[in-house]
Specification:
Blueprint lengths: L5 E6 L2 E6 L9 H16 L5 E5 L3 E4 L4 H4 L4 H19 L5 E5 L1 E4 L1 H8 L2 E5 L5 E2 L11 H10 L5 H6 L6 H7 L4 E3 L4 H13 L3 H29 L6
Parallel strand pairs: 2-3, 3-5, 4-6, 5-7, 6-8, 7-9
Antiparallel strand pairs: 1-2
Helix pairs in contact: 1-3, 3-4, 3-9, 5-9
Length: 237
Amino acid sequence: MTSEHVSVERRDSVLVVHLDDGKANALSSSMISAIGAALDQAEADDSIGAVVLHGREGKFCAGFDLSVMRGGDISAMANLVCDGGELVSRLYGSSIPVVAACTGHALAAGALLLLGCDVRIGADVDCKIGLNEVAIGMVLPDWAFNIAVERLSRRHLQLAVATARVTDARGAVDVGYLDEVAPVDAVLDVAVARATELAALNGRAYAGTVRALRGELLAEMGTQIASDRATGRVPTV
């Protein structure tokens, strides 16, 4: 399965999903759909035990597609943000583990993608990672607040969300966006190694544990996303 900006690669029991739009890896509707299709493929194949979400050189994901977010079409903006929320929720609730290979910048929706992944490996490079919405005049949607509170360090939550503080890769480990850093030329291999370890888990036990551990939060996020889509809410001040 390939699309214009998303391609997949099998590495034994791991499906690697490569994101590369040649630019900032912005989340467009087509990229969101393609990532979802890759997850469909992985979850339907019993020989695949884990997924790696891999960015392009220097950029994991710089947020939602600015041509939509600044295009003036309120309905398109609301739908894109809701599509992104459904993707983050889908990652967090996946029946198989998802590992991020964060190759560089991960801002706004890109940081939210990291929060949706089970394990996050970051390239040890000069980059910006964080929820910068307040700095660009936006309020996070409710579903995004929920997963931020769930996954970010309590010590850093106020600075990371309310004051839009971004950090480099090493700082992102302390904040909670990443779990570890690796040399830039090894980040994908390390992510695949972690995913291979997770693929060896009992699949049924993993899926059942995710439902029990995250089900309440995922249900709340789903309700919030559905409400935003129904009302056309756009997260701006």
